[in-house]
């Protein structure tokens, strides 16, 4: 529809509708975020008085392979760097989650009775694995057996509260003081594929061997920091771990024929490695491809005999927040050094033969790729090793070591190893993700027990960037806005800013949505240069420190010079979705005041109107004027579109009064379109408009989200073109996760789909037929005949 502006009324502003109460989507976050102080500044950086605690560990542990148990003793040297006096310490006892009466086990709920009794599909029913886990958990003797807690040879009073232990200090620990104490403990290792969890053993029935992935295995100091005080929320399974940095000295005694992968650097290679293995490791340091340290042939040979002797592997790790390890005689081991800028790391993979050929081909390569890419967006990897282990845990991260699950499938009949595309990219993706966790949160040490998104979401975002640098069209599961649309449409949501244990749709909420939001922030809102600088500044500021959500939000705004409170509020604090609709368009032209042009335009508009049905039929009627032409006069030759001399004189007088710039503006001949937009989803977002002109030319016009500032539900935007516009598309590249693209175009586009036709299946539930169906392996005999034999 085309209309005209009078010249004096022409206005290039956004008009707004204010029919409903004002909902300020751009309200600042000051009322939500904690006040800045000397510990954490308003810019998002650590303050001048920032502090954090420290805990150093000396651990001696023995793996009893036959009993599948660990016995250990540790000394913790706790440093009180806070300004507070502490009368007690809290220690995490994560293994207590496997106790028969643990909160995690007791709080489990089940599908409804209807789902148990009448499952609509096999997926609705109860699975073998689920029932096995429940029953095994009722029998497994899990949790720590604490033998002693002492200091200086004297016992300490302690209280165990489920997965936490309070140690009462003999005298208060003053600021700047340290306290060393000892804990002796043991526990039984869970079978991971039965009881689940982030660690455990896997049994291989074919060769009667076990593979152990050991984590959350020693009593660990709970975190104490300025925002939370003691972080002693119970470990329920979803909220991960909040820990302090420290140095580790760890000796692990295992069967002599085991190979151990561990956090830290091996201190006694001469005691535990052969000369050949040490030589291969030396070559791997400068190799251009992975070097096999323990070959598959050597691992298969080790599988066939179980040593009764033992070896002690000694590792040290500096400035890490945790320590994990894996042990098995089944391990194949390959390694390759990677050195770039200040990074000098040995990338290593450990995997059983069941992981080949995928693991030998991709694992170590994926480690190096991860570090190379993550360094670009954060900081140079600072640790000496980075390890990927294949075992029962699908994906879990620790400093310098990660546990990753995907492996080929073995055909039960032929024994052939095959894998799907999903398995291949699942392996590459999970290694990138878990190795990437070294940056978030192993070094940028966020509180995982409180905010899952701060490690999983940020890491998933950088994982997406790294995956896209692996190959063209890498099938990333998370990061692309179009992949989050189904979740954003769903009803069963909570905001990202929800405590870890209360999250619904955990993967979508804590991984995919924050990663997608950061991708939108990078590509659509800030642009890559501004975003990458700010994101890297956040990593630099909080390297080896503990940031909170406020520190991230404030740093991104501070370093990019952009007010993003509207984005954090909408994307992180609400469940609003993006759904922007083009509601209508009106075309306007600027009146030239020239009567020759303007009356011709009006006549053309009139001629374009549809002829009424009555008028069409009246054409056939005989007319008196046709029979008596003498009745014609002036008005039969002229109408309201006739240009008169008065019109011409008025135009000449008006033009004479105009300034040169005003005459030029009249002559430009621009096409003006008023476009009405509605924000149906609630989440404000920039407008990305693809304009197509009559000549076929297309261009993108990007309008910042602030266009919604004064009217967050409905706005009207003026679009000016040099030639007629034939179509307009909002978000043409699907870059904002708009949940309904059917209202994104003018003219509306037809949505294409498929309708499936199904043949009617009569007599589906035929008990007589099913009863007499031949049993497999019984020839043609009926079930009745077979049962009587």
Automatic annotation (TrEMBL):
One Pfam family from the record: Peptidase_M1
Annotated Basic and acidic residues bias: 777-789
The entry's keywords: Aminopeptidase, Hydrolase, Protease, Signal
Region annotation (Disordered) ranges: 760-789
Highest taxon of source: Bacteria
GO CC annotation: cytoplasm; extracellular space; membrane
Database matches in SUPFAM superfamilies: Metalloproteases ('zincins'), catalytic domain
Domain Peptidase M1 membrane alanine aminopeptidase: start-end pairs: 369-571
Extent of the signal sequence: 1-18
Protein name, as recorded: Aminopeptidase
Annotated organism of origin: Rugamonas rivuli
């Amino acid at each position: 529809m085309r209309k005209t502006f009078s010249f004096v009324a022409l206005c290039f502003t956004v008009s707004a509708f204010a029919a409903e109460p004002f909902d300020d989507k751009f309200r600042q976050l000051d009322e939500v975020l904690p006040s800045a102080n000397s510990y954490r500044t308003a810019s998002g950086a650590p303050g001048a008085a920032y502090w954090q605690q420290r805990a150093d560990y000396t651990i001696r542990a023995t793996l009893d392979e036959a009993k599948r148990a660990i016995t250990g003793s540790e000394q913790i040297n706790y440093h009180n760097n806070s300004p507070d006096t502490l009368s007690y310490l809290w220690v995490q006892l994560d293994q207590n989650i496997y106790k028969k009466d643990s909160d995690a086990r007791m709080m489990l709920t089940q599908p409804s009775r209807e789902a148990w009794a009448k499952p609509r599909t096999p997926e609705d029913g109860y699975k073998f694995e689920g029932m096995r886990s429940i029953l095994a958990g009722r029998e497994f003797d899990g949790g720590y057996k604490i033998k002693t807690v002492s200091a200086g040879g004297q016992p300490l009073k302690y209280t165990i509260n489920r997965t936490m232990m309070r140690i009462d200090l003999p005298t208060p620990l003053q600021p700047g003081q340290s306290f060393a104490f000892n804990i002796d403990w043991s526990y039984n290792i869970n079978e991971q594929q039965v009881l689940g969890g982030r660690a455990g053993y896997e049994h291989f029935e074919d060769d009667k061997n076990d593979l152990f992935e050991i984590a959350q295995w020693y009593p660990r100091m709970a975190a104490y920091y300025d925002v939370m005080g003691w972080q002693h929320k119970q470990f329920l399974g979803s909220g991960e771990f909040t820990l302090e940095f420290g140095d580790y000295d760890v000796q692990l005694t295992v069967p002599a024929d085991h190979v151990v992968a561990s956090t830290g650097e091996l201190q006694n290679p001469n005691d535990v490695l052969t000369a050949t293995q040490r030589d291969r490791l030396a070559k791997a340091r400068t190799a251009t491809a992975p070097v096999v340290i323990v070959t598959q042939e050597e691992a298969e040979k080790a599988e066939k005999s179980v040593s009764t002797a033992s070896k002690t592997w000694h590792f040290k790790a500096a400035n890490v927040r945790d320590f994990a390890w894996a042990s098995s005689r089944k391990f194949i081991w390959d390694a390759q050094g990677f050195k770039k800028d200040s990074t000098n790391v040995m990338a290593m993979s450990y995997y059983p033969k069941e992981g080949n050929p995928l693991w030998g081909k991709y694992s170590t390569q994926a480690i190096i790729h991860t570090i190379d890419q993550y360094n670009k967006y954060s900081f140079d990897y600072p640790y000496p090793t980075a390890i990927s282990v294949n075992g029962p845990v699908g994906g879990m991260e620790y400093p310098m070591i990660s546990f990753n699950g995907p492996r080929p499938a073995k055909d039960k009949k032929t024994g052939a190893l095959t894998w799907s595309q999903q398995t291949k990219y699942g392996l590459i993706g999970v290694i990138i993700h878990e190795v990437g966790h070294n940056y978030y949160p192993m070094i940028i040490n966020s509180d995982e027990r409180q905010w899952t998104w701060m490690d999983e979401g940020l890491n998933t975002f950088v994982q997406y960037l790294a995956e896209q640098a692996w190959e063209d069209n890498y099938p990333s599961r998370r990061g692309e806005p179009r992949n989050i649309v189904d979740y954003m449409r769903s009803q069963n949501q909570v905001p990202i800013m929800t405590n870890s244990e209360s999250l619904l749709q955990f993967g979508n909420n804590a991984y995919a949505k924050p990663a997608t939001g950061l991708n939108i922030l990078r590509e659509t809102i800030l642009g890559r240069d501004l975003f990458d600088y700010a994101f890297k500044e956040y990593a630099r500021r909080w390297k080896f420190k503990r940031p909170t959500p406020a520190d991230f939000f404030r740093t991104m705004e501070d370093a990019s010079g952009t007010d993003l409170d509207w984005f954090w509020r909408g994307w992180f604090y609400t469940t609003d979705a993006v759904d922007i609709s083009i509601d209508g368009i009106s075309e306007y032209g600027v009146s030239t005041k020239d009567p020759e042009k303007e009356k011709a335009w009006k006549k053309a508009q009139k001629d374009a109107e549809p002829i009424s049905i009555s008028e069409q039929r009246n054409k056939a009627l005989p007319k008196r004027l046709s029979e008596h032409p003498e009745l014609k006069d002036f008005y039969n030759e002229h109408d309201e579109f006739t240009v008169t001399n008065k019109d011409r004189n008025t135009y000449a007088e008006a033009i004479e009064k105009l300034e040169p710039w005003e005459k030029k503006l009249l002559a430009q001949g621009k096409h003006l379109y008023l476009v009405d937009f509605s924000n149906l989803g609630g989440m404000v977002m920039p407008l990305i408009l693809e304009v197509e002109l009559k000549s076929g030319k297309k261009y993108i016009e990007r309008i910042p989200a602030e266009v919604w500032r004064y009217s967050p539900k409905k706005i009207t935007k003026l679009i000016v073109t040099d030639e007629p516009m034939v179509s307009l598309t909002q978000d043409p590249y699907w870059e904002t996760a708009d949940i309904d693209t059917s209202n994104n175009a003018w003219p509306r586009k037809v949505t294409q789909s498929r309708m499936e036709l199904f043949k009617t299946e009569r007599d589906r539930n035929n008990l007589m037929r099913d009863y007499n169906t031949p049993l497999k392996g019984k020839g043609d005999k009926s079930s009745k005949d077979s049962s009587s034999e």
